[in-house]
Structure formats: C-alpha cells, structure tokens
Specification:
Layout lengths: L11 H17 L4 H12 L8 H14 L5 E7 L6 E8 L3 E2 L10 E6 L1
Antiparallel strand pairs: 1-2, 1-4, 2-3
Helix pairs in contact: 2-3
C-alpha cells in the first residue's frame, strides 16, 4: 500500500493557469448573478464535452454557494420560445430566472427545485 503523497501534479504552467482561473472565478462571483451565468456559458463554449443548460445552471448554483449566496436550481420544461423542451435554470429567490430570457414572456413549468 502506498503512503499518501503531497507531491504536486501538473506542470508549472498548468498550476499557474489553474490559479489564474480560480482568481478570475472569485472576481466573477462578486458580480451580479446574471454576469456569473453569462461567464459560465461563455467558458462552457471552450469545453470539449457537453455543456448545456443543466451544466451551466448547476455551475452557477455551485459558484453562488461557494460565496454563501443562494440560487435555486430548477429542472422542468420551457414553453417559450417554441418548441417545448426540457430545461434547467437557476433562479434568484423572489426574482425569477437568472440569465434567461425576459421573465415576463418566459413560460415555464418547474418540476423540481433544489
């Protein structure tokens, strides 16, 4: 059995990039939530895997939780704009969806909130 190792992994450049990413994330979390959601979506475009509504909304909720703020993670269906589709989004309690279309013209049905 191997002993626990505290050896750092990754090259110096990778560690520097990770530190810069963390610093940028902490700065973005100080901005209003709509900017945080927008930044998560923009960054998701660079990810080679799937980064759709579920991943970006969960990322925003977890980012808010790291700062001790609260966003509600919602799963349900979106009716406008057509077609009807499954959707995930983040809501600011008492203010509606964050970073989505206009709250007045956005018809949705929430099936689960976390």
């Amino acid at each position: 059995m191997e002993a626990y190792s505290t050896v750092r992994t990754g090259t110096r450049r990778e560690r520097a990039a990770a530190a810069a990413g963390l610093a940028l994330a902490l700065v973005l979390l100080r901005l209003p939530f709509r900017h945080t959601v927008r930044a998560v979506r923009h960054t998701a475009r660079l990810w080679p895997g799937r980064a759709a509504c579920m991943e970006t909304s969960l990322g925003a909720v977890l980012a808010a939780a790291l700062l001790g703020r609260r966003l509600t993670w919602c799963l349900g269906a979106r009716f406008a704009p057509p077609p009807v589709e499954y959707h995930a989004w983040a809501e600011l309690p008492g203010h509606g969806p964050v970073g989505e279309y206009t709250a007045d013209g956005w018809h949705r049905h929430t099936a689960l909130t976390v």
